Structures are given as structure tokens and as C-alpha cells.
Protein 1
Amino acid sequence: MKKIGVLTSGGDAPGMNAAIYGLVEEAETQGVEVVGFIDGYEGLIDGKAKALTPANVKPHIGIGGTFLGTARSERFKDSAVQQQVAERINEELDGLVVIGGDGSYQGALKLSELGVHTIAIPATIDNDISRTELTLGFKTAVRNVVETVDIMMQSAASHHHIYGIEVMGRRAGDLAEWTGKALAADGIISKTEDFSVSQVREAIEMSFAAGKSYQLFIIAEGAMSAAEFKRHIENETVYGIHDFVLGHIQRGGNPVAEDRMLGFDFGKEAFNRLSAGDTGLCLAVEAGEVVAQSIEDHRAFEDRRHLS
Ligand SMILES: Nc1ncnc2c1ncn2[C@@H]1O[C@H](COP(=O)(O)OP(=O)(O)O)[C@@H](O)[C@H]1O
Ligand SMILES: O=P(O)(O)OC[C@H]1O[C@](O)(COP(=O)(O)O)[C@@H](O)[C@@H]1O
């Protein structure tokens, strides 16, 4: 193996830069060159890349986002484009590492079917990839939500307000569940079927009766919007709701140590897999260890707690 490529794709996730570092550092020990494609599959299509070394990647390991840039590339979904890209990559490189979420995995699978040696690394704040205990960025997003809501609650407590806060997660409820627990929320709506006006009313009444100074409901974006939550509660009870969408504050921020360390491990393992001649694999955490699985098995995401 002489030269490999790496790209970050889909929603950025803190820890992506650490994964690139783990890959580049391991590659250097084996004398293998690494190029980083700019803006995910967009850079792959246009041949936009830069040479990566441990020295030029290291300054980014403590920073959120991805210094390579990322994109949601519609162009790459076209099979003729995939074919052209695969032909070029097969001439120029000995392998490719794709760092991204479940959408990016599908692109990685296509490339591997077209003969490009491809390994995928799970990176998304949603933690919505099947058969891995963790995705890169999730723990940092949990930290972001908890610290932000802690601040918001100081005002809520002063006014005895009821907050309905919508968190990200696309179709998955992990971010809502983890942060709701950490914040001792009065209710966590992580799936649509978790929502019941009477339960929310009861929770508010119990909370007030217990003398709590504020009420907090954490809502997964895939379950319902904070605006919908407010509408239901205000139409069907006497209570008023302050609704918030936390938005992209959840996705940025310097990665927590766990996301950096996991990134290093994923990057290193991705290199070792390519070096062993593997392809069509994605990395995962199982019982706390980094393992490799077939990307194809992830197609249906059937064993995750996805929302309908
Ligand atoms: N079925 C597919 N075939 C080929 N490429 C895909 C497919 N689905 C997604 N992709 C590529 O992966 C990119 C990222 O996917 P997206 O779902 O936006 O984010 P994530 O990877 O974070 O889930 C898409 O913009 C597209 O370029
Ligand atoms: O930033 P965008 O493009 O509006 O996308 C928002 C979506 O991206 C995420 O933040 C991350 O999703 P992915 O990692 O799957 O791309 C979701 O939680 C959210 O639904």
C-alpha cells in the first residue's frame, strides 16, 4: 500500500479530526501517504484533495467539526458518477476511509462494490448507526446539550417556567434519552409513542407539588417538534410551555476526551484494515472494543431503536 485517501461526509461530528489523525499517524509509521478530500464526496468527485501528515492534522484534534469540510452530496448518489469516481480512485489510490453517518456508509458500500478498498468510520452526533455502542461525536453532543440546558434552567428556575426542549438525533432518540436522564428531566419524549398529554400534565403537577422550581421536558426531533409539544400541552391543559430548538450548538464544540480517543482508535484500525486488504467494512464499538463489521449488514438499521 502506497497511498490512501480519507474524507468526512454528512453531518460533522466532533472527533472526526481525531480519527483523521489516528489514520495519518498510523499510515506514517508504515510509510503510506494520505490525502484528504475536501467536502466529502464532493471533493472526491472533483478531485479536490490535500496531502495530510501528522504535523498538519495534529493542530485540529481538539477542535470540533471537520477541518477537511463535509457535505451532503446529491451528485454522488448518481451511479454514473460513482462509477467514474471509482475508476479514478482505483488508478490513484490503494484505499479510502469514509468518516460519516449511515448515509455516508451507503456511499462507501457503493465504492467498495466498484472495487475501491473502502473502510467506514461511524461519526454522527445521533448515535443512530446499528450495531455499534457508540458513534464519534455523540458523547460531545451529550455534553453540549447538558451544559447548555443547565444554563437555560437557571432562568427557568427563577421564573418557575416549564421548558420543552427539542434535541437532534434525526430518527433516533439516544441524544434525548441520555441528556434527559443527565438533566433529571421531568419527561423524556424520545419516541412518538412516549408522548401522552395526561402523562405530561401529571408530571408537571407532581413536580410543582414536590416544590421543584422548574419543569423540563426533553424531546427528540424525530418524535415531535418542541412547537408541537407546546401546542398539545397548551391546547389540552392549563399550563404554558416555553419551547426551544437547541439546533447546531449540539454539533459543534471541542470534542470530549472520549471522542478524541475513540477517533484515534478508529483511525488506526481503519488503516490496519486497509493494510490487511479488507474492504466493505465499517468499524464499531462492541463491548467497549473497536471491531469491524460488514457495511452491508447495516443497510436496514433494523436493530436500532429508530423512530418510525
Ligand atoms: N444511497 C446512497 N448511495 C450513495 N451515496 C449516498 C447514499 N446515501 C447517502 N449517500 C452519500 O452520503 C452523503 C451523506 O449522507 P447523509 O445521510 O447526508 O449524512 P450521514 O452520513 O451523516 O448520515 C450524502 O450526501 C450522499 O453523498
Ligand atoms: O445540519 P443539517 O444539514 O440541517 O442536518 C441536521 C441533521 O443533522 C444531524 O445533526 C446529524 O445527522 P447526520 O450525522 O446523520 O448527518 C441530525 O441530528 C439532524 O437531524
Protein 2
Amino acid sequence: MSKRVLNVRNMVLAAMFAALLAIGGQIRIPLEPVPITLQTLVVMLTGSILGAQIGAISMMVFILLVAFGAPILSGGAGGLGALLGPTGGYVLSWPLAVWVIGWLTERAQQLRVWNLTLYHLLGGVLLVYAAGVTWLAYVAGLGWKVAVLQGALPFIAGDVVKAVVASIVTLGVIRAYPAIRPRK
Ligand SMILES: O=C(O)CCCC[C@@H]1SC[C@@H]2NC(=O)N[C@@H]21
């Protein structure tokens, strides 16, 4: 990683991954109150490919765009109302989730499918679900049991698969472009 974080290369990469996140939100199964989407796959890829700093910046840019009304959340939702709605906890957790995945990835001696998958599960599943379910319980006025039933259980199997796929894709990208690998 170059010393200056906000150079043109990093800004372009951050914008690209924010755009990918917007696309990931449109590939969805519209469950209520929380859809199944490819957003978690992109969140995981952002952390392990861009690293902690640029990755978190990319997610913050995405959230800022949503807050200003860009229709880039799942199903084309956007604006402060959508951001602070029932699924807001997941979305607002993404900068931290990406930062955690990036932090771990940058410090790994060697990157393998198994350790990347572990980082993806910690940041992209555990942390995201903790924030998302807590927020859902509060905003939608659901009890904890119902919030877990509706906000976590339907996604676990798919998100574990996404964690493995994100690891394989990350290793492929790093193999093709070794200079992209974020390191501390
Ligand atoms: O409104 C949005 O755009 C956010 C939707 C959040 C979907 C969450 S992210 C974690 C879990 N995995 C999924 O596939 N869907 C939920």
C-alpha cells in the first residue's frame, strides 16, 4: 500500500467496490423484513482485497450516497429513511466489518482459503449479524427471538457459502494482481 491513502488508484478502487455493492443489492431474494442479497459477498471482498482503510472508506462513500438519496440499497431503496429503516443496522456495520476483515488480512503471513474464510465469517457474518439483528429488534420492535429468526437464521447457510466464494475470488485476484494485496 502506498503511503498516501487517498491517491487516485485507491479512490478508483474504493468507487469500484462501492458500485459493486450497489449491484450486489439488486441481486436478491426479497424476503421480509430482510432480503437475501449479494451485498455480504461484496463486503467480504472489499475487506480482503482493498484492506482496512480503503475498504472502510469505500463502504462509507456508499453509505453517504445512500444518505443523500441514491437508490443503491437492496431493491433500489435509498435516502435517510431507508438507511435508518429495519435493515439499517447491517448497512451501517459494513465499514467496521470491512475494516476488521482488512485488518486481519493485512496481518496474515499467508493467505489461504481457510484463514480468509475465517476473517470473512468474523467480520462479514458475526459482526454484521450482531449489528443487524440488534438494530432490527429495536427499530422493528421485535423480540430477540423473532429478530434472530428473521434477521439471521435465513442467511447463515448462504453467507457461509459467500465467505468461501469470497476467499477463492480474493486469492484469484491477488494471484492475478499481486501488487493489490493489502499488507501491514
Ligand atoms: O436494505 C439493504 O440494502 C440491506 C439488506 C441487508 C441484507 C442482510 S446483510 C446480511 C444478511 N445476508 C443476506 O443475504 N441478507 C442479510
